[in-house]
Amino acid sequence: MWNSFGFEFINFYFIPGLVLGCIYALGAIGITLTFSILRFANFAHGETMMTGAYLTWTVMAICSGVLGFAVHPLVAAVPATLLVVLLFLVTDRYFYKPFRQADTIKVVMASFGMMLIIRSAVQVIWGPNQLTFVPGIAKPNAYLKDWSGSIDFLLLIPNKHLFIFVGTIAFMMALSYLLNKTRIGKAMRAVSDSPDLAHVTGINVDQVIRATWIVGGACAMAAGVFLAMDIQMLETTMGFRMLLPMFAAAILGGIGKPYGAVLGGLVIGLAEELSAYPWIGDGPLLSPGYKTGVAFAIMVVMLIVRPQGLFKGRSF
Amino acid sequence: MSKPILSLNNLRAGYGQTEILHDLSMFVQPNEIVAVIGPNGAGKSTAIKSVLGLLNISQGSVELHGEVITNTPAAKVVELGISYVPQNQNVFVNLSVKENLEMGAWTRPIGIPERLNDMYALFPDLAEKRNQTAGSLSGGQRQMVAMAKALMVDAKILLLDEPTAGLSPKYRSEIFETIQKIKNTGVPVLIVEQNAKQALAVSDRGYVLVDGANRHTGTGVDLLADREIARMFLGGGH
Amino acid sequence: MDFGILLYVLSLLTVGGIYAIFALGLNVQWGFAGLFNVGIVGFAAVGAYTYALLTTAGSTYHLGGFGFPLPFGMLVAMITAAIVAGLIGLICIRLRSDYLAIATIGIAEIIKLIFKNETEITNGPRGINKIPRFWEHFSEERFYSSWPLSWFGTPEAWDAFFNSLPNWWWQPFFASTVLLIMYVIYRMLERARIAPWGRMMTAIRENEPAARASGKNVTARRIEAFVIGAAIMGLAGALFAQHLRLIEPTNTFDPAKVTFLVWVMLILGGSGNNRGAMLGAFLIWTIWSASELIITGAIDLLIDIFDGVDMGSLRTRAGFLRMMLIGLLLQVILQKFPRGILPEVRPASPKGIN
């Protein structure tokens, strides 16, 4: 059923849903890894994403303002990633590590505190107002038009979305290689499986935890920059807005299942966008104001029906 | 008597404030299987865990080759060559058999392919299942994976916590045969066991633990023949 | 000057008291039952909006207002918050603490989303204003011209009377009312804590399997604690609405300024200890508002010194700096003084009920 209705559906609902899904997916990977390896829900994850985007913006501003040449966000993101990973490692060392042997809830609380500390710090440094990330309107590339000669077949994908798709796939492949082929990646899976056994097996759990923050940090960073590229601006609440959908994605996919988190992210992203599609009648099925609620509803249903998630992750 | 590889000397130890071991002593010499038997709650597993630095030792010492390693963290103990197989959750269920063995070799990352082949030779069942996840294996096969994983570090000694608990008689015998094979490769084994009779039968020596202290010591054969022990743990008057 | 200080202290007591009620509510959930609720702001919003819709005068901007008596509005605010909590409790209470945290933070956001989007009912982002504040409301015509004030005098007489009062006349009364409500809740919670119910809560929190094994309905007790705590938060939300007189979904119910501050208050004061909860609330609120004065003063000083430099952005950012410092304070307390200023005191269990 590829008619003008389909044109609208694909270009204005499905593709944006996929884009959002990719962003959620990358964020949810970090959440699911921390949840399964360090065993706590990291509330500061969204803020780290947001900080990453701000740092990228700063690198770009320095390049164009001081050094006199413009750089692509994805290039600027590389040095910013190092800073974000450093932020993760420092946070872990001073705010989470002291609670390693304590009740989980202590470290959840500490991460809740970190959420506010990081956001406030960003608001102090960069100010509370929105910043323009990439100015101008992104011109969509038209695909499939020449092949069919009909407007109905038009696929509109701006470059920024291509970057996001390709970037997400690249990240997934790298992650898959890391977890299945490298020593540290296998150890991450082992610790996620059973920290106690990993301990008596002689695995250096501290090293695995550091690796987890690095991987989670890199993914969070990518998610933050992709989000900023997509909405073309920065605001200090963007991390918090992402938090709930990312948690929902991680739970949907099953805690400790990175691929599950990716699928969960895509499902949540699509569900949020498609919920506004006029499935019945002319108006949107669900007012766009309630998009965030979709993620939450899916999460709650999941917690009731199948708390271990689609991929049989750990349930508590 | 040759010099012991591992010795526990007058240990007092427990979890937090609760003391479970009161004055426990035992040792393991090269080329022997030592069985630790006793009623539930006697502190059998605790004795093993005290070696791994998993609980508070308030008095006494643990020595490896005459060097004191009391309260050394587990990761370090493993690095020193003491391998431990816990009773429950002793394999990484989401990792393949091969990956489990690789994780076992974490502290000795060199020469893994050769040692993998050694293990597949020692545990032929595992060779064909190397790419299956450990979680998909039967209880007995998991136990094999756990032991193979523990042996991946060129262990100086292997500690097994109830390796046959919950297994079928067929697998039980297989495990005990494997333990003898392990000993023949030159690795002494310390087993904590509920199945006292079978354990003592394969063991060179045994300890009977009661209330966190050793009550009887002797060769496996002697302990099996002891009437009091037979009455206490072995069921009936065998 | 002195008079200004008096009014400042009154406002400290009022807002501190409201926060103390929030902290008492959280103490029931966290201190007694070990339930990690990070959706305080959601229950506050439910209470505040319920109260606002029920008690404001009729308006074309939002549903109602129904002009109901103020105590009725506060009562229904409690009940509504309790019902919302009950629904969440039924779904989430059996889950591990992290999940409850995620679910509650989610619920709070959804509640705000609803208040923001259902413009027909709540006037959306523009919010509800002219919310009647206890005592002060008597000086509004619709109150002094109806019972009970109309029994004592004519509207004209009341009008003249209220005009003769200084414009802050209601402040001591409102502050006292807040403190009285806080005190009543405190006494009731102390009763509950020492009663078998409270001891059972402690037993469940300390050793859930044992409590379950001894035949206690752990889930039901937890939901009870969650609902009672939420009802108290709903009441605090209603008082919060009275204090502000204008509520809207986004800035009024900022999770940082409600949920987070209340958590810091409880942890600092001592979770599990009702007095600690109140002490922490007043202490943090005093630090919070005093730091505002100090930082504003410091910025004014800077502006004086560096004449002509634009300090406007500094001023807006100062508030965030405060939030950051409070966050760091929480981390320090968590790590160094996890039991708070007034640590929990276990009720004696004479018959060995635990």
List keywords for this structure.
heterotrimer, A: 316 residues, mainly alpha, ABC transporter involved in vitamin B12 uptake, BtuC, two-stranded antiparallel ribbon, 12 helices, 4% strand, globular, C: 354 residues, disordered C terminus
In short:
By secondary structure, chain B is an alpha/beta fold. Chain B has ten helices and ten strands.
Describe this protein's structure.
The complex is a heterotrimer of chains A (316), B (238) and C (354). Chain A is mainly alpha-helical and 316 residues long. Chain A has a single domain, classed as ABC transporter involved in vitamin B12 uptake, BtuC (Orthogonal Bundle), CATH 1.10.3470. Chain A is built from 12 helices and 4 strands, in the order ααααββαβααααβααα. In chain A, the strands form 2 sheets. Chain A has a two-stranded antiparallel sheet. A two-stranded antiparallel ribbon of chain A has the order 2-3. In chain A, helix 1 packs antiparallel against helix 9, helix 1 packs across helix 10 and helix 2 packs across helix 3. Chain A is globular, with a radius of gyration of 20 Å. The termini of chain A are far apart. Chain B folds into 2 domains: 164 residues, P-loop containing nucleotide triphosphate hydrolases (Rossmann fold); 68 residues, no CATH class. Helices cover 37% and strands 26% of the residues of chain B. Chain B has a 6-stranded mixed sheet, with helices on both faces. In chain B, strands 2-1-4-5 form a 4-stranded antiparallel sheet, covered by helices on one side. Chain B is globular. Chain C has one domain. The longest helix of chain C is centred in the C-terminal third of the chain and has 32 residues. Chain C is globular. The C terminus of chain C is likely disordered. At the A-C interface, helix 4, helix 10 and helix 12 of A face helix 4, helix 12 and helix 14 of C.
List the helices and strands and how they pair.
The complex is a heterotrimer of chains A (316), B (238) and C (354).
Chain A (H helix, E strand, L loop, with lengths): L3 H34 L7 H23 L5 H24 L7 H23 L4 E2 L7 E4 L1 H4 L6 E4 H23 L1 H11 L1 H7 L3 H27 L1 E2 L3 H16 L4 H17 L16 H15 L11
Antiparallel strand pairs in A: 1-4, 2-3
Helix pairs in contact in A: 1-6, 1-9, 1-10, 1-11, 2-3, 2-4, 2-9, 2-10, 3-9, 6-7, 6-9, 7-8, 7-9, 10-11, 10-12, 11-12
Chain B lengths: L5 E10 L2 E11 L4 E5 L6 H8 L4 E9 L2 E2 L5 H7 L1 E4 L11 H8 L7 H11 L1 H5 L10 H13 L5 E5 L7 H16 L4 E4 L3 H7 L2 E6 L2 E7 H6 L1 H8 L4
Parallel strand pairs in B: 3-8, 3-9, 6-7, 7-8
Antiparallel strand pairs in B: 1-2, 1-4, 4-5, 9-10
Helix pairs in contact in B: 3-6, 6-7
Chain C lengths: L1 H31 L7 H16 L14 H23 L4 H21 L1 H4 L18 H4 L10 H10 L5 H25 L1 H11 L1 H6 L4 H27 L11 H14 L4 H32 L6 H25 L18
Helix pairs in contact in C: 1-8, 1-11, 1-12, 1-13, 2-3, 2-4, 2-11, 3-11, 8-9, 9-11, 12-13, 12-14, 13-14
